[in-house]
């Protein structure tokens, strides 16, 4: 009886999983997906900058760095890889003065670089209530602010760093957009 127990224990201890030798781009993607990092990257100061290099109509380019998604290019000799967007944490952007706001991903995939930088774009559709003085209609003109914000509570969360705004096709029906500008209203709101 002692021999059988020893033999079974030896078999269990002797089973060491072999390391994968697959180093192609798909194996790299699978390795990163298996990490299953769906929570926000946690920095020492608890705030993650979210860079929005451009806003074009309703599309926002978004960039952030997640060190946990970085890889060694001597093992996987690629500078970038495509990952499914639902397998990686992505920031939520809100139009805080919107009556109805939806954010959707412009693609089912996003691009990750070997240093952990992630590139993606999102589409925000928002219905914003603006008071327009119609006294001089059809020559009425007014401003309509749209406040874009990310999740943040106290010293933790995300912080928007905005780039440039590109106005596209500013006339629809009776109304025409003459200009669009980025203005920081408060430290916690854009």
Task: Describe what you observe in this structure.
It is a single chain. 12% of the residues lie in helices and 37% in strands. The model is unreliable at 6-18 (pLDDT under 50). It has a single domain, classed as Distorted Sandwich (Acetylcholine Binding Protein, Chain: A), CATH 2.70.170.10. The protein has helices spanning 2-14, 25-34, and strands at residues 47-56, 59-65, 80-84, 93-95, 98-105, 109-113, 117-128, 148-150, 152-153, 156-166, 171-172, 175-176. The chain is built from 2 helices and 12 strands. The longest helix has 13 residues, at 2-14. β1 and β2 form a beta hairpin. The chain is mostly beta strands and 190 residues long. Strands 1, 2, 3, 5, 6, 7, 9 and 10 form an 8-stranded mixed β-sheet that branches. It has a two-stranded antiparallel sheet with strand order 4-8.
